[in-house]
């Protein structure tokens, strides 16, 4: 292994949640009088923490989202997860290989701890991630593209940033990893490589990752 720690993003990398959550976010924002397409949501919010949604809407319209926006949105998302969420194809094989080779890994997500856990329980990925391997933007205050979350995860896992590799599928996440001084592998199943500026390697099938990490 050329790295001492593999840090996974969650949404779109471990669980195939981005189509679900961006469809629901676009619909809810539109419902509240902020017309948003699915493509708009992916472009502006994919990979970000919820505070970015609030900040951009207020910046663009001068209006604040309702105080219960996050709770209502997450309620809709979790209900949809229970019906439709699946693990990203091939990710269990990657995790199994890392565990078998005793390679340290963790998840660092812009999503809340509750969102991470709901997704993992629903897809069965919870068996690969104990409490010590789960880090959320809630832990640091500033989500991606700030480097804080990745730096916090590396510190908690006892690995210096330059020995970490981050697996990301969003431009904001890649920016955060680069700012943290970490290597980045861009997962292009949903996001074109040209949008993941700063990633050192790219792959479109999760099963390819095992070979890239060697």
From TrEMBL:
This protein's record includes keyword Transport: no
Show the Gene3D superfamilies listed in the entry: HAD superfamily/HAD-like, Putative phosphatase, domain 2
Q: Can you tell which superkingdom this protein's organism belongs to?
A: Bacteria
Report the GO molecular function annotations: hydrolase activity; metal ion binding
> Is Nucleus a UniProt keyword of this protein?
no
Which cofactor names does the annotation list?
Mg(2+)
The UniProt entry, under InterPro entries, shows: Beta-PGM-like, HAD-like_sf, HAD-SF_hydro_IA, HAD_sf, PGP-like_dom2
Q: Which UniProt keywords apply?
A: Hydrolase, Magnesium, Metal-binding
Pfam assignment, any one: Hydrolase
Q: Which family does it belong to?
A: Belongs to the HAD-like hydrolase superfamily. CbbY/CbbZ/Gph/YieH family.
Name-wise, this protein is HAD family hydrolase
Write the lineage as a comma-separated list: Bacteria, Bacillati, Actinomycetota, Actinomycetes, Kitasatosporales
């Amino acid at each position: 292994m050329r790295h001492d720690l593999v840090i996974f993003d969650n949404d779109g990398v471990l669980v195939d949640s981005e189509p679900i959550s961006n469809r629901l976010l676009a619909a809810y924002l539109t419902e509240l009088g902020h017309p948003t397409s699915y493509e708009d949501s992916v472009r502006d919010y994919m990979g970000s923490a919820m505070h970015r949604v609030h900040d951009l809407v207020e910046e663009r319209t001068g209006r604040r989202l309702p105080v219960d926006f996050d709770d209502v949105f997450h309620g809709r998302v979790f209900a949809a997860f229970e019906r439709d969420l699946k693990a990203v194809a091939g990710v269990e094989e990657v995790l199994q290989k890392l565990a078998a080779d005793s390679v340290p890994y963790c998840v660092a997500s812009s999503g809340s701890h509750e969102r991470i856990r709901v997704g993992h329980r629903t897809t069965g990925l919870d068996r690969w991630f104990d409490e010590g391997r789960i880090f959320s933007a809630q832990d640091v205050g500033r989500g991606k593209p700030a480097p804080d979350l990745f730096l916090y995860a590396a510190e908690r896992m006892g690995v210096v940033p330059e020995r970490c590799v981050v697996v990301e599928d969003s431009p904001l996440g890649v920016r955060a990893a680069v700012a943290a001084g970490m290597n980045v592998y861009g997962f292009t199943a949903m996001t074109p490589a040209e949008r993941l500026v700063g990633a050192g390697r790219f792959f479109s099938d999760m099963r390819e990752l095992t070979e890239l990490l060697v």
